[in-house]
Amino acid sequence: MPLPSLSAAILSHMIAINNVPPPPLCSLPKLKMSKYIDYGQLNALCHMRGLQSSQSSYSILSAHNMFIKQYPKIFLKKKTRLPKLFKQEEKREPTEGTEELQPQQPDDSHNIAIHVKKARGGPTLYEPKKLEEKLAEFLDILKKLPIYRTLREHRTVWKMLKTIPDLTSQLTDEHLKTLSRSVISETWVKGSTVVGNDGFYIILKGSARPQTKAYKDLIDENESASSFIPQSFQGFVSNEDFKNILAEMHTPSCDPMLRQWSTFGTLEVTAQTESDTKEYSVITEEDCEILKIPAKDYVRLKSENIKLENKEKMKLIHKCPYYEEWPTLSICELVALIKWKKFPPGHVIVESGKIISFVAYIYSGYCNIYRNIVGLMKLQPKKVKKNQKLVCMGKLNEKESFGEISVLLQVPFTCTIVTGKEVEMAIIEDKDLFELDPVTKQLMLHTAKPTFGHLKDEDVKNVYLEREQKKEWKNFKDKTMKNSLYYNGIIPGFGKWDHCWTSIPRNLKDTLISY
């Protein structure tokens, strides 16, 4: 009976390469002796008399006890090294005719700027700026109108404001950077009354006395039991001298005096009443330079950020398939209730058979959709066990929503939703959704659909059986190929297998894999 063309080609190729010599044998690597074992003691223990002799039990027991005592000696102990004692070397007195070596400074003989500074009594370019110089530079910048400041000057103001704890504890870095572009400095003579209910004030120079001892946060309107003086200015980073000065300048809690870098005022725009005016007012004890952050600028910044955020939320909802035909007014009602939330990869958002507590709109990332199915697992040739498994039926990608039907109708989910990677969502909680007007809720029920509600149990079974059949067929192919190569004298992973597989032509490899 003639062989098929494929079998004949494989057989002829195997006969042709049967005479190929096997690859050369590789020598075994040399064993490295451990540096933690005393091989002399180990050899002595191995040849100890009395352990293997057929003498009395007493001699064997004594040899065993001796072995147990000598056994710990085969392990070498690490030598503990004590730290070295450093002796302070005495400084040598310079001999006559010699001078102490000093660090060389860069050659500034040709730099005209250095000569001008020396002639005017100022520091050179290589000397660090002192605190007074930094403060003077900061005050000079604040004296300018914000539109006349350079980028470097704006950055200097921003860095200075970041060192004030009362600002950084309540404002984000981005908000502080924006507000630093509009701050100004005001000069107040001795005995002036500064009303701080229209902005947030920082004393840069001089001192002042508050009219009341109550202190309020920049933003929160609730009174606090703490004193009027907030946390002191902590100084420039990398300026140790300034930190020492601040430590000496610490004001005790019983002293209500506001000194340099103290703060007062608020960033909330409120109706000006007589009690509020006194609460935020201070009286200058000497001529003062006070930095002011207008409350109106902060309110305008907050409103702009809210507008941008609402615009992003509206754009997200409008791109979801269920909301493409929604009117703008109805979407604005949902935007007012939205909160942002992030979920890590592999987080189970809702399980099958449970009611979800929010409606979600995926902003970034994706979620996998799983359905439960009861499968059979083989234990013995004639025994099987029922096992519940999750079958992945699809994904929820960006600009898609879920949970509307489950929340409004209180219907359990028919699938399990798990995040595939980090997912950021805009969510509306169920308690907020129930407070919507009936028209918006009916519109949501009319346009939304259950998440993967079109799937039936028969569809899930078919997907599960198809994947299981593919898995079994792959295992069967791998086993058959290994057995056929084994019976032809080529064992996978040994000897001629690697050389045989690399020598097979590409078209024959593809044919074997397709089978």
TrEMBL record:
Gene3D superfamilies: Jelly Rolls (2.60.120.10). SUPFAM superfamilies: cAMP-binding domain-like (SSF51206). PROSITE patterns: CNMP_BINDING_3 (PS50042). Residues 322-436 form the Cyclic nucleotide-binding domain. Residues 87-110 are annotated as: Disordered. It comes from the Eukaryota. InterPro entries: cNMP-bd_dom, cNMP-bd_dom_sf, RmlC-like_jellyroll. PANTHER family: CYCLIC NUCLEOTIDE-BINDING DOMAIN CONTAINING PROTEIN, CYCLIC NUCLEOTIDE-BINDING DOMAIN-CONTAINING PROTEIN 1. This is Cyclic nucleotide-binding domain-containing protein 1 isoform X1.
